[in-house]
Amino acid sequence: MGETSGSEPDAVVFGATGFIGRWTVLRLLEQGRTVAAVIREPTRDRPDAGAQAARGRTGASVPATPGRTDAGGGGELPAWLQGHGADVERLMVVAGDLTGGPGLGLSAVDDERLAGVRDVVNAAAVYRFGLGREEARTVNVEGALNVLRWAATRPGLRRLIHVSGYRVGLGPRERYPLPEAELAELYRGQGAYEGSKTEADAAVRVVAEQLGVPLTVVNPSTVIGHSTTGEAGQYIGLAEVVRDLWNGRLPALPGTARTFVPVETVDHFASYMAAIPEHDPKPGGLHWVLDENTPNLPELVRLLAAHLGVRAPKTLVPVSLIRRLPAALTGANPETLAFLTEDRYDTASAERVAEAAGLRQPPVETALRRWADRLVADRFGTAPAVLPGGFHDVGGSRTYVAGDRTSPGFVLLHGLPLDGESWQGVLGELDGAPALVADLPGLGRSAPTSATPLAWLTDLLAPVRTRPVIVAHSAAAAPALRYAAAHPERISALVLVSPYFLQEAAPRPLRTPALATPLLKRISADRLATSLLGDGTSSDEARRAVASAAAQLHRPGVARRTARLLRDANQPAERAALQALLSETVSVPVHLLAGQLDPLVADPGPATVTTIPGTGHHPHLTHPAAIASIMRRADGAPG
Q: What pTM value is reported for the model?
């Protein structure tokens, strides 16, 4: 299925498209290894992939239930690796299936090409709660044993590295197989996922000893995003806690003040996996890989709440109480409760290997913040960000900012009821021109502030060393115009898209917070898209942008603040003040853009006016190329 330009692979990774698997492949390639990546058929060819992705993601896994951010099939994995700087000339992509018996579904040709493999990494597992017993066992137990038996047939095998879990393998002696009564009790008590990982851990260790396979078992804790970029890839477990925190749906925290849910960054773990063959020379190791400096769970949640600008829960509820209450009442998944303990883990053997390989854990609190940034940017796996951003202190607000904070050519400010994702279509037309995109305070993903919009914008642009073009849509025109009047030397031009104060006022119901707030709070993404874009065909980018806006409107306080801003912005005195400012004060070039269906009705003064045919109040969503062309002209570049 794949080709390499040099020697045949000396390492093979099962589960290569999963979160842990793809980062391990990347690290092995960076070491100069020639690597075979065994994958199932490409996700895009599987009609059930979307439905499965909605139910769950794979973690350390071949995507038996593929997540949207998995590095897909035959073409997608190399593309992901290249995007992360890897030389894919030494990569061979092989079709296989862990559930295909001891031969793993490999063709005879591919099996022969893998005859010289020295190191086998099994990072494959179905990672999802709510599985059936046999569904979990098929991959997590039988699939793991199939990999082991196949590895035993490699004449030059140096090491089989099996990814287990940090809550398994803690007993005094592994036993396999278990009598059916014990097995049933195991799955009944732990749930299908954790039960299958426990059974697999024992099975792999027992059978490896029987077959004389040189085995190393690694037991990672919760694997979070990349320590530098935050790039994530699995969205259950602790990520669900962060999601609920972000959405205001975490009124209380299960556990105690000492509950410990350790984390491990994916890049550190991948480096550790790749280091084992050289730096852990003796097989048989059982390594618990985690960052012991992870804050206890309540402190971890407070840390992330402060970073995201949301409220942290103050109440702790004992796990024993949650177990006794109906899941429909608590909203807790019973399978996750086993992870909420005060246990600590013996990491001494893992630390010896890491020290030998020169590996150091990255600062855990920084890594957690970057992971949380990326979770929010990617909407917890539902919509990968075009321009990932993060949270910064700006004018008293924990503000979501994406792009270039110091040298942008453009500063993009969204209107109502949108967020910064509304610019993704325009960004795609700018050919990589540096841009700074921020959510306005109290709107979208940004926390509110007591500072004025002008003070907030002044603080946002304080680090900027260039003279950018400010591009503001609708309600954002007010702070943008005031900033241009106060600091003309700091910007080169001002582009106002649908300057609302020169257009017909919003309908009275939208200017009445008591009516607008519940409407915005409950509006669906589809209904919002129809309201903003009309019933005609719209681009995927536009619909994703509207879906992001709808998701933020459902968070606590965002709809209320949006409704109040709609009221305040449309006060006659405010509209008149902005019209006067535009006509008399602003000294930088001003370009006004209005849709044909929502024309200017007031005097634009000396500003240049462009009318975009066939669109209304949101031309940057419906006609991003036209907006980008005008922006480039405002910046002095050809349109």
A: 0.92
